[in-house]
Amino acid sequence: MTDSTMNDQVSLLIVDDHPVVRDGLRGMFENAPGFTVLGEASDGVEALECAAALDPDVILMDLRMPGGGGVDAIRELTRRGARAKVLVLTTYDTDSDTLPAIEAGATGYLLKDAPRDELFTAVRAAAEGRTVLSPAVAARLVSAVRTPGAPGNEPLSAREREVLALVAKGTSNREIARELFISEATVKTHLTHLYAKLGVNDRAAAVATAYQRGILG
């Protein structure tokens, strides 16, 4: 299994307004086994054009770029139903950056001080559709979901808690189905129910809210 995983190439599009950052990321990934850099973009507008032309597995997306921001690009990629998973890689971890990016459809959110191996692992996880959050960002999301008037604390069922715990570990729907001996359709049903109970729309927000409410950890 390890050999086949290593042989599976993950294709990347690097989006950042700083050439030196793009050069550094390109060099890092091109010198690591299992990654192919298809192209670069300097802002969100160019990122949309490149994503359509190159069809990468993962887009490494900066957020604050003069020619077009990352959040708008992520939102448009989501609207278009783009196959690529977006992994935000930025220096910003404020509430005004993290939550909009996750809500727009980002699969993960890392800070640029992340260690090289953590970044490689995160890109592979993102390519598989798993949520990736740096600890600092997860803490921000936990704080951000403490909104007045949020849906009530309807308790999760035992099975929903099991599914949520596996989601928090970055487990895919297929892997959850296999581990719990249920179908993927059933997993999706459980996710829909627990999203409604937690008042969220996606995996990352569900995990953050569950930690904040003490359901996890």
Describe the secondary-structure layout:
Elements: H1 2-7, E1 10-15, H2 19-30, E2 35-41, H3 44-54, E3 58-61, H4 70-80, E4 85-90, H5 95-104, E5 108-111, H6 116-127, E6 132-133, H7 135-144, H8 158-168, H9 173-180, H10 184-198, H11 203-212
Parallel strand pairs: 1-2, 1-3, 3-4, 4-5, 5-6
Helix pairs in contact: 3-4, 4-5, 7-11, 8-10, 8-11, 9-10, 10-11
Describe this structure in words.
This protein is of the alpha/beta class. Helices cover 53% and strands 13% of the residues. The chain contains eleven helices and six strands. It has helices at residues 2-7, 19-30, 44-54, 70-80, 95-104, 116-127, 135-144, 158-168, 173-180, 184-198, 203-212; strands spanning 10-15, 35-41, 58-61, 85-90, 108-111, 132-133. A six-stranded parallel β-sheet has the order 2-1-3-4-5-6, sandwiched between helices. Helix 8 packs across helix 10 (184-198).
Gist of the model:
This protein has 11 helices and 6 strands.
The termini sit apart by 31 Å
**H/E element sequence:** HEHEHEHEHEHEHHHHH
In round numbers, the mean pLDDT is: 85
Task: Give the strand order, joined by hyphens, for the main sheet.
Answer: 2-1-3-4-5-6
- Give the overall shape, derived from the CA principal axes: globular
Count of strand segments: 6
